[in-house]
Design brief:
The chain is an alpha+beta fold. The protein has 5 helices and 5 strands, in the order ααβαααββββ.
């Protein structure tokens, strides 16, 4: 088992096929494990000249959410932005609909378990 920082195409190359195969990595949802993300991944590659990293979709969602909350609040004042965020339950993010608990934490974390198969990390299970 490795930490999320090891999830990259280079892992299997560095570790070697016999050591990498079957290695597990728990981590947040990655772009290639999101259903229907292929177009987004290809657009990302075309624009930036490289594949999106394991946290690219979360960064994308965070910026979209912040921009929408600021737009709805009519500015960047913290009270207005917080109030707007509280009203955005169900807002469609790239990784799925936004859902908050009563404690203002995410209801659906999008965590998953990846495993190396044939030299690449692949989805083993989701932990939603």
């Amino acid at each position: 088992m490795v930490g999320d920082g090891s999830v990259s195409p280079e892992f299997a190359e560095i570790a070697g096929p016999s050591h990498a195969e079957g290695v597990y990595a728990p981590m947040a949802q990655t772009p290639e494990t999101i259903p229907g993300a292929n177009d987004w991944i290809e657009s990302y590659k075309k624009k930036y000249g490289t594949a999106p990293g394991p946290y690219s979709n979360q960064s994308y969602d965070a910026v979209r959410l912040a921009a929408e909350a600021i737009t709805q609040a009519g500015g960047t004042g913290s009270a207005g932005v917080l109030a707007a965020l509280e009203m955005m339950d169900g807002f469609q993010l790239f990784s799925g609909p936004l859902k908050f608990t009563l404690e203002h934490t995410l209801a659906n974390g999008g965590f998953q378990i990846l495993v190396v198969k044939d030299g690449a990390f692949t989805l083993q299970d989701t932990l939603t």
